[in-house]
């Protein structure tokens, strides 16, 4: 047994308690001064003040880690990404800067469909190589668990290759990968007007094999005007659930009052994601349900769109998570410090709410809140150290990565050379 003992954390952020945290409870991050944590192998076994734990822990039997002057907190959970893909779309970013809208770019052959060809041309080995490099950057930002979606192949073989690569990465990289099947990420041109036929292809020819090979835990769909409507999305989600998938929904990103968040709640989805245009009724329903409201501010930033109404959602009682939406088109970024800045400065969230959204609520969005997202006895020892002594430095040292050390499952897997 390997015992590691963290002492004298300037601020220990535990994010303890019932998950997910709704509304005003998001401000409770269980902070203590001069905190300490005892780990045994990959688990947390004791949490408290240094004075308290010093009386219980035989330091001679431990590797003692001095966290003086540093924040110690749970590893970040990036609960919505598309980090595996082939090719890039830098030209589209330039088009958007000139005023072209996201939907107009899709209509001229850009958008999601523009990534299909280079992704279909990539092998499992190439996906693994690309994914490992991108996950290395995530680790540097303090991400210890990431959700990854398929969806840039939208056929049988490519979707399976993407998910097979994620499985390999989950088994070989320190960052844990939660895999999501997103075959209905867009409508291929040859299926335009035959969306239900496309969904049936996914449900009957692809997803049973995904489930048989245990390649994805969740199923997702892009519910939006011009992509998959409410009726088709509900049909897909109902059948995906019967196949054994947990559910997620891309909802209410572009079209106001489209009803995506309402449908996600009715379907029993773990999360409804984006929500820039969520209706008052959708917000009310999410607040009264277990569905996590996952907001993706980097995407709104890159698209120059108004941010999702985080303050309204939290005040209404929603459980809000924040994630990157890292993808090749609308958000080629996984910058956690920028998410923190946008959350605090432009979305009117407190730093405590932002931390909750990036840890325990992110864990709940991928059905992992029972094992990660907080520093509590019995949970996986996924812990990060920040360079400075207070969480107030996170928005104050604007967009700067403050992660000093990353401990994953009890082992130090990253240390920054300042």
UniProtKB/TrEMBL annotation:
Co-factor requirement: Zn(2+); Fe(3+)
EC code(s) of this entry: 3.5.2.7
A Pfam match: Amidohydro_1
One GO BP: L-histidine catabolic process to glutamate and formamide
List of residues binding N-formimidoyl-L-glutamate: 152, 327, 329
Annotated function: Catalyzes the hydrolytic cleavage of the carbon-nitrogen bond in imidazolone-5-propanoate to yield N-formimidoyl-L-glutamate. It is the third step in the universal histidine degradation pathway.
Name recorded for this polypeptide: Imidazolonepropionase
Taxon lineage: Bacteria, Bacillati, Bacillota, Clostridia, Lachnospirales
Residues bound to Zn(2+): 80, 82, 250, 325
Keywords from the UniProt entry: Cytoplasm, Histidine metabolism, Hydrolase, Iron, Metal-binding, Zinc
Sample GO molecular function, one term: zinc ion binding
Transmembrane segments: none
Principal location: cytoplasm
